[in-house]
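Q: Hi! First time doing this. I have a protein sequence and I read that you can turn it into a structure. Is that right? Here it is:
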Amino acid sequence: MLRNGEILNSILAAQKEAAELIMHARGILAEIKTGHRDVVTEFDKRVQELLIERLGAAVPGAAFFCEENSRRDSLEADSLFIIDPIDGTMNFVRGFHHSAISVAYMSRGELSAASVYNPYVDEAFTALKGEGARLNGRPVSVSALPLSESVVCCGTSPTSRSWRTAPLSL
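A: Yes, that's right. Below is the predicted 3D structure, encoded as structure tokens:
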């Protein structure tokens, strides 16, 4: 059985290999999944298949819960990888280089390792259970500044019309 750090290393290696598919993508065609803002590309599918292949070899018998196909194994599996192959597909389709490859690993229902890798800037945000978060290996933490003196940014591309028209409340 691999330790969490070894699993995270396997995730990072698979993400960096999959990033080559994204970085060399040309002629990107999108298919509509559930609505005009919810699309999938052949690159989503290819990246996901590569991740399943590499991570399945690293952790034999692992289950997978994936965004881009019907591969949705039980979240209660002993070893489970959760994959969003191109997180930010609309950005990817439009050539806006702000997408990531997101992978998490759960062991017996507990999240134990995760990585969000942005190949365009070679940034890997990683976390190991009980060890905090890192950016390219350097520890990161939240700011002690009050919210009134902070910069906060979020974005979304809601696929449901009800989400787009719902009033914002803070």
